[in-house]
Write a structure and sequence with these properties.
single chain; 168 residues; Vitelline Membrane Outer Layer Protein I, subunit A; 0% helix; disordered N terminus; Jacalin-like_lectin_dom_plant; carbohydrate binding
Length: 168
């Protein structure tokens, strides 16, 4: 039996200073939340991947200073590592996109993040993973920035990803 889910997005109004975008993906996995508007930007993202995204680790910025990497780990056995390092204060993530899908036979009933792509105002990082399944995408408005990620991680995979968008 294949379980299909619809990805629904509640688009925020720009009058709210910090809003949650997503999460994209399925309901399974252990939830994590790096904080609503806790940071002033993203300096780098380190992840692991194979046939889907495994670990997702972020180095944030807080008022011009890097914050020690916050790690959301998975099993990672046999996974490849990837790193997206941004020129903080000169480079801003403007779009987050990817694919969610069931990964048979490993996750026959659970949606996982199969791939993720991070587009900045200077270049595109990724796609990381396999571009297969249901696409998701969100364009970050001019002037806004990612101030924290949220998600769910199971034993081996990233099941869902979302983020807080802050508009100064």
């Amino acid at each position: 039996m294949i379980l299909l889910r619809t990805v629904m997005i509640d688009f925020p109004t720009l009058s709210e200073p910090t809003v949650l975008i997503g999460p994209f993906g399925g309901p399974d996995g252990h939830p994590w939340d790096d904080g609503s508007g806790s940071f002033t930007g993203v300096r780098s993202i380190n992840l692991t991947l194979k046939d889907a995204i495994g670990s997702f680790c972020i180095v944030y910025d807080l008022n011009g200073n890097p914050v020690q990497e916050i790690k959301h780990l998975s099993g990672d056995s046999g996974y490849t590592t990837a790193n997206a390092s941004f020129k903080f204060s000169e480079e801003r993530i403007i779009q987050v996109s990817g694919y969610i899908d069931i990964l048979s036979p490993a996750t026959p009933t659970s949606l996982v993040i199969r791939s993720i792509t991070l587009k900045t105002d200077q270049k595109t990082y990724g796609p990381y993973g396999v571009e297969k399944g249901t696409p998701f995408s969100y364009q970050i408005p001019a002037g806004a920035y990612i101030s924290g990620f949220v998600g769910r991680t199971s034993g081996d995979y990233l099941n869902a990803i979302g983020f807080y968008q802050t508009t100064p």
